[in-house]
Specification:
- The structure is a single chain.
- With about 200 residues, the chain is mainly α.
- The chain is built from eight helices and no strands.
- It has two domains: about 110 residues, Methane Monooxygenase Hydroxylase, Chain G, domain 1 (Up-down Bundle), CATH 1.20.58; about 90 residues, Methane Monooxygenase Hydroxylase, Chain G, domain 1, CATH 1.20.58.
- The radius of gyration is 22 Å and the shape is elongated.
Length: about 200
Amino acid sequence: MKGLKEAVEEVRSELDEKDTVREIAIKASREIRRRAKNAIFGIHRGEDVLEELRALRHEQMALISTLRDYPELAHAGYVSEALQELTEALVLYSTINGNPIPSSRELKIDASSYILGLADTIGELRRAALDSMKAGDEETAALRLRQMEEIYEEIMGLEYPSAVVNIRQKQDTARVLIEKTRGEISLSKRLLAVERKLD
């Protein structure tokens, strides 16, 4: 048929390019997740991770640029998971250091990835609270619990179907983590009070 070969070749060229961009995006997303996790571990260890976070933001901007002509790939699961992990690292860093929480617009992260990453920060703050308790720092442990509760209160105000943002499971998990942390801090305080009396 006249023109068929040319028409298919044109489509093939476009699909080849899209497939190449997809492979680049998968690799970049994997790297962002890996480095964001490393940054989170560094934050918990009290390391200076500012340069690592700046490098992560640079990688994020490169990924956004790569996907500019393919918005459907920008909403793929692997990209969203990377942006959630990035959000978690940046929000945790700001929270631990007493800085304002950056918005999704400031971070150039879509609303769903941002709010899911924000919800995941509750688990990291729990870890920080437990670390503070182990170090005997009741005041900081209580602060981390309050920060967990503040984030929880905000995300609980979001009631959307899972097609918009799949937040329900993270809300349920956050509630359980807060209840456990509150109980552990309360128990730690009682044990410390008993120890002081014995001393």
